[in-house]
């Protein structure tokens, strides 16, 4: 778009910063009951007020819910897997995240990834996605919480699927698949894992996250 003669150019530092700087990328990991979902929302709100840039949320939960509610055969199969406490097949998770990124991401936008990757195979695909979209500084936020505290929190919620047996199964899958998925990025150029104590009050966890990612 051409500017008219004598038209002023806006050299506002905040605008120039937004145009020239690549959006930040955050990936959340945490055991069920760690408060990960709450911390994702708090970081989204903070980023919006921090620089006003749009934040793309890439969470597999919403994609899975849409499939479950569709009444399709795929939805029925997913329901069976979830009731048994199994992780969803890699291709489903990869497809959901890839679809979100292809339709919503652009260089200046922040990206928050939640609930993915959850297996080493998914981590490998995610790494390729980040290369493709030229994201070079990925901050992994690991909200650490003991299984004992996680179990207590989940049982207090009183949800029908939060039984001791069901939780043990989810904890087992977490240790077997999710932790290795996170550890896949240890020592990789462009990836940093930040460990945060999830046993604190919600506000303190949020403050710690901002501190370690240097936004406080």
From TrEMBL:
SUPFAM superfamilies for the chain: P-loop containing nucleoside triphosphate hydrolases (SSF52540)
Region of interest (NMP), ranges: 59-88
Binding site for AMP: 60, 65, 86-88, 115-118, 122, 159, 170
GO-annotated cellular components: cytoplasm
EC primary class: transferase
Classification via Gene3D superfamilies: P-loop containing nucleotide triphosphate hydrolases (3.40.50.300)
Stated family: Belongs to the adenylate kinase family.
Assembly, per entry: Monomer.
Protein name in UniProt: Adenylate kinase
Organism, scientific name: Candidatus Nomurabacteria bacterium RIFCSPLOWO2_12_FULL_44_11
